[in-house]
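In response to reviewer comment 3 from the previous cycle, which asked for concrete evidence that the modeling workflow produces usable outputs, we include below a single protein chain processed end to end. The sequence was submitted unchanged, and the resulting structure tokens are shown without manual editing.
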Amino acid sequence: MQLHDLTPNAGSTHKRKRVGRGNSSGTGTYSGRGQNGQGSRSGGTKGAGFEGGQTPLAMRLPKLPGFKNPRRVEYKAVNLSRLEEKFDNDAVIDGAALKAAGIIKKEFEPVKVLGDGDLTKKFTVKVDKVSATAKAKIEAAGGKVELPC
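The workflow returned the following structure tokens.
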């Protein structure tokens, strides 16, 4: 069997009805559209969402108020308790280290360290943002925070 031998099953395909090709064709004169009215005109249908003159659903529903800032920066939150369990003493914590530890998915996504949990190890933290409580706990444990300028 070759590709040119393949044919559709019998009865599965139908010839297109050619309308407006003379009265002897069976669909001449008005071509199955009737005589007058909207249905006889080309393009003569109601628009999508038309509900018979009733106010359409899209117009009845409330619209969302406010403003979505397209330049908003979404930071990944990382707590001190997570750093405590994942890193050793004197570790340098940056995007690459957080990705290697499985805390974030991408090395260059913005990260903010939050102050939830206790800290006993000394870290050097190099991320985008650090909360005030996290900074105080890191420095109290002997570590330091280096933020980008």
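The chain has a mean pLDDT of 94. We consider this sufficient to address the reviewer's concern, and the full set will be provided in the supplementary archive.
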